[in-house]
Design a protein that fits this description.
Layout (H helix, E strand, L loop, with lengths): L13 E14 L14 E9 L9 E7 L8 E4 L4 E7 L4 E8 L8 E6 L15 E12 L3 H8 L18 H39 L1
Antiparallel strand pairs: 1-2, 1-8, 2-5, 3-4, 3-6, 6-7
């Protein structure tokens, strides 16, 4: 048998795959997980998954979560979906996330961080409610090799759904709402600037009249 055919990269092609990552957290009640240290106050879960919870293991081989050094075995390697882990704790800290892609991809490990959130931004939110700190992103493969490109094309990437749901807070609707909020904010800032300019002009006129 001769050597395998060369696996060339496809020039000018980019393929993206949407993912969501982050954490959920909830304050512990009277029932505490076994072996939870007495000072721990919350149960939390860190995760990375497909936008609609679809299988991502056809292109992701494993996900490594690096926890705070105070945790035993602080480097946790998840080799099969769901790519998540649940722990208990009392403090917020940066969790390192490393995505290892399948061997045929021949892609570098992707590194980033997520700030574990245990407490609500809005302090009026009831403390017993589940906290969610979830982010949308897209993994982009620039000029993938031919074999990996074929694998990616067997499962076309999901698009943002039209409407947000309880299971997926990211949607075209949410995107439009965010654009509208930015637009409204820009208009309000412009109005305030015009109002201040008017006040300044009146003040200058008053000062000039006194001279």
């Amino acid at each position: 048998m001769g050597p395998p055919p060369p696996n060339k990269r496809i020039k000018t092609i980019s393929v993206s795959r949407p993912v969501i990552y982050g954490n959920t957290a909830k304050k512990m009640g009277d029932v505490r997980p076994p072996n939870a240290p007495v000072e721990h106050t919350h149960v939390w879960t860190i995760f990375l998954k497909g936008l609609e919870n679809e299988d991502v293991s056809y292109y992701i081989k494993q996900v490594v979560f690096k926890l705070h050094d105070t945790y035993p075995n602080s480097t946790r390697i998840i080799t099969a979906p769901p790519f998540e882990l649940t722990e208990t704790g009392w403090g917020e800290f940066d969790i390192g996330i490393k995505i290892h892609f399948v061997d045929e991809a021949n892609e570098k490990v992707l590194n980033f961080y997520h700030r574990l959130r245990l407490h609500p931004y809005d302090m009026t939110q009831p403390s017993q409610e589940e906290i969610k700190s979830i982010f949308y992103d897209e993994i982009v493969f620039n000029e993938p090799n031919e074999r990996f490109f074929q694998t990616l094309m067997t499962k076309p990437g999901n698009l943002l759904p039209s409407n947000k749901t309880d299971s997926n807070p990211f949607s075209k609707q949410l995107e439009l709402e965010e654009i509208q909020r930015i637009d409204d904010g820009t208009k309000e800032v412009k109005r305030q600037i015009e109002e201040l300019q008017g006040q300044l002009e009146e003040k200058l006129k008053e000062e000039a009249a006194k001279k």
